[in-house]
Amino acid sequence: MPLLVSTATALMLILTDNLASSALAQGDAIKTTGWQPLCKLTQTLGKIPALAKGRLAHLRTAEQTARAAALKIHVYALTKADPSIVQAYQALARVLQETASDAANALQTETANAIDATYYASDMYGRAGGFLNFLNTAQTATTQTGYCLAGTGAAHPNGLFKPAQCGNSEPSLAVHTTDITSSEQTETGFADFSTGNHADNSGSGNSKCQLFNTGSSSASEVFQASEKVTILGGLVSITPNSASSTWHINDGQAVAAAGIAQETNLLTKTYNKVKALNNARYPIYKETELEAVKQAAQSPNLKNILAKIIKQENPETTSADNVAATLISKTFGDDGSLIDQLLKDLANTSVNGAKVAPTETVEIRMLNKSQDLQDVLDFYSRQRAKSIKKLTEEIQQEYKATKACKESPEDKEKVCNEAGDDQQKCKALEKEGCVFNQTGETNKKCKFDATKAEQQATQTATGAGTTTVKCSDHKDQATCEKANDGQPTNVCGWKGENSDGSDKGTYKCRDSSFLLNKQFALSVVSAAFVSLLF
């Protein structure tokens, strides 16, 4: 601090010159009650930068740990097929996300407190420590008649002053989170601060410290006037008078009342900033993954979140709270007793999406970066979207095929006839069983063909890329039923009518697409839900 250095240098030169040449009576020295509390102040303020650093490091680590754990549990949930287990994991991850958000908010608030406290504490530390060590340097370590820092009574301190304990070294930055004690910072000020006059033998002019000489415009005195002077940001006020000198801490007033200071100077501002940092309180956050997840599993909010998820899945339920409590106990154990095993299983579970190749798997324990975990979540989200799209398309095709089966031949004929003699329009209706007859009746060359309709329905039901079975080619029951070999479900059946109820009478090998479609839809739904998870 250039200003402090220049001020100290000027005082040093003045005092050194005057101590060597002035024959005038000198003023009083400073009692131990006037300088030792200032030394203790530097010890307290020297802890602030490291305390601020420690608080911020703790909150930052807690926030990062909770957020990473939440992402890992979200990823782990994607590997589970049991919907209730997935719900429990999602609720646990939500609690961890909230913890991370709370820690981030606390970090933001604490950062402001830390910057303020460090700034003011360091400023006051430098001023107080610099001035005290300047006075100590100006006097010898052994008994002499001229000195400003007194020891017992008015005697020379004779080594009582310890520079290293009075701000003569840089504040420690060794990270810690230990609070400043109530004896170091009290409700009225700092340790051992008192309101009295700390100039020894005031009024007797005991010829100890040139600093307190009566002010004079002559070049032989430190001060040009005997008026009170406030120095060190309000920490000390001095009245330079050989007959009635004074040395007051904070002008002889308490720094604060009930833990709050009126911010009139650097000292009172420093008091409040240190108090704000020291008194900041927030929930107990855990810095390790295991402890953070255990804490989340025991959070009262876990049941509330899980109950909400259960109600969203089943709005009619009236026992969501009880179901949630049972599921929490089953999944995480009482008091989080199953969390250790859960995290071990999680760590060894392999997932897709972290590598470029979609089929390449990685164990979750290897995913320590938030971005890697997010990549996995994004991958599974895309796979889920694809599965839903595919399911929707297949169900729509199934619906069309089923609807077509329910229509009468006459209705189907009308649909085909709407294409008239336009071969291209008729071709577009092939899935409806329409065929184009070039020699057919004018405006009705697009005709319905029941056999073609059965083939199209079978093809839709069994899926693209499978072999189409033409049931009408089989003339006996044995070969008709054998046609179902290798198919996901029965395609043909020896029946006395078509699937839509038409052509009743003769038993022959007919398409079973109506039954097939029902079974197919159910199998697609089941497969889709599984594919959403794997």
Strand content: 5-15%
DSSP helix count? 15
Number of strands: 9
Distance between the termini: 64 Å
- Give, in order, the helices and strands: HHHHEEEHHHHHEEHHHEEHHEEH
**Widest β-sheet, arrangement of strands:** 1-2-3
Gyration radius, rounded: 44 Å
- Shape verdict: rod-shaped
Q: Provide the helix percentage.
A: 40-55%
Q: Unreliable runs, pLDDT <50, ≥5 residues?
A: 1-10, 12-25, 514-534
In terms of structural class, how would the helical and strand content be classed?
A: mainly alpha
Protein name: Variant surface glycoprotein 1125.119
Membrane topology: Lipid-anchor; GPI-anchor
Domain Trypanosome variant surface glycoprotein C-terminal: 416-533
Signal peptide: 1-25
Report what the structure shows.
There is one protein chain. The protein has helices at residues 2-21, 32-45, 48-77, 83-138, 266-279, 289-297, 300-313, 320-332, 339-348, 370-406, 409-417, 423-428, 450-462, 477-482, 513-533, and strands spanning 229-231, 236-239, 246-249, 350-351, 362-363, 434-436, 446-448, 492-495, 508-511. With 534 residues, it is mainly α. It has a domain at 389-533. Strands 1-2-3 form a three-stranded antiparallel β-sheet, with no helix packed on it. Strands 4-5 form a two-stranded antiparallel sheet. A hairpin with a 4-residue loop joins strand 1 (229-231) and strand 2 (236-239). The longest helix is centred in the first third of the chain and has 56 residues, at 83-138. It starts with a helix and ends with a helix.
